[in-house]
Amino acid sequence: MVDTGRPGSAVDNIRARVQEKAERRAAARAAEQRDDASGPPGGATSSTVVATETREAARPAPEVPSGSEMPGVHAEKPTEIPPRGWLQIVKRAWAENNADNMPIIGAGVAFFAFLAVFPALIATISIYGLVASPDQVASQIASLSDQLPESAQTLLTTQLTNITENSGGALTVSLIVSILAALWSASGGTGNLITAVNLAYDEVETRSFVKRKALALGLTLGAIVFVLLTFALIAVVPVVLDALPLGVLGTVLAQVLRWVLLLAVIAGSLAVLYRLAPDRDAPKLRWVSLGSLVVTVIWAVVSLLFSIYVDNFGSYDKTYGAIAGVIVLMLWLYLTCYLVLLGAEINAETEHQTAADTTEGEPQPMGRRDAVVADGMPDPPVPTKESHPKR
Asked: CA–CA distance from 68 to each of 73, 94, 95, 356 (Å)?
């Protein structure tokens, strides 16, 4: 049981950070309106503004360690962090991953992702089916799962067949309603992923329900756009390559480039997630892109190895029978969600490694950046058994 009355407890800290965020943002809005002389301070009283500004001015600046103690402490971009600094980042990220219970949280996100998979497929097929036949859409979506184990492919193919049999190619009121319902249902899984990424960045959620749902719907639509882009890379590009006289070597190079572009699209999608999901001032793109690329490569290798293991060494069909496809798909989703959250931890600790402002906009001193990992320094730089790197 959580001790809610003990000073310094987790609940007290969360409440203090929620209040501080709300006051800081209200004061910032009031200051902007005051500077623009555009009317009353939008919900923040003058006493709130003064109290917030006084507290910010009185807050002591975090102590910045030396470059020898924390390599890359003044880095303006991740590539300026030396190898010894990256070793510290990886150690802290792994410790944070365990302290945040990401293996368990990843399982929860994977469960909700599984519930969101088929509504997302319904929305994708309905939208894409306006310009292509449902059978073509189903065939192209099925080709995306070629790297999944056979039992998971069978499950997806069966569901896709059922979906396409009930889908139409005309934009009707019922189709619009079904698309909106599918998007709303699928956004529930995205919303849980947003919550988990918030935890990885040690942020508390203060956005309204409307803002959170709008963000979840936007990211869900972005995921559908991502699927459509992969259609172009997997289904359309091969046809174009076959029609071009590239020769054997040219065709091989083009195929390699195609898969590199696919991984780049996945990494870019993760970078967008890491940048928009946390309730904080958005980090600069370079502080989320490198971790996204690393996680994408690891995810591709892990997915391939998992598929090989299930198809050749696992006995899921004998153990689980008819629900083997469900189990395998959920396991793959768990691995995917876990790696995505681990990437968020790595990105967070990469920002935590430098004293430079990693957020968008004009550089601000530490303590005024509205981002936990950008407003302080890890103490100690490398976690020990006696301490953990919680901010």
From this structure: 9, 22, 22, 16
Angle at 352 between CA 349 and CA 353, to 5 degrees: 95
Question: Per the domain annotation, does 328 fall within a domain?
Answer: yes
pLDDT band at 341 (very low <50, low <70, confident <90, very high): very high
Q: Which residues fall within 8 angstroms of residue 253, CB to CB, at 6 or more apart?
A: none
Residues 211 and 288 occupy one common structural domain: yes
Range in 150-154, 198-202, 259-263, 364-368 with the lowest mean pLDDT: 150-154
pLDDT tens, residue by residue, 119-142? 777 777 776 666 666 666 666 666
Q: What is the DSSP string of 300-323?
A: HHHHHHHHHHHHHT--HHHHHGGG
Whether 352 and 92 have beta carbons less than 8 Å apart is answered as yes
Mean pLDDT of 90-107: 91
Q: What's the domain count of the chain?
A: 2
Domain for residue 70, yes or no?
no
Nearest to 151 by CA among 290, 268, 306: 306
Residue 144 CB: number of other CB atoms within 10 A? 16
| 205 within a domain of the structure (yes/no) | yes
Note down the domain range covering 26: 20-60
Cα angle for residues 347, 275, 204 (degrees, 5° grid): 85
Q: 231 lies in a domain?
A: yes
User: Which pLDDT does position 105 carry in this prediction?
Assistant: 92
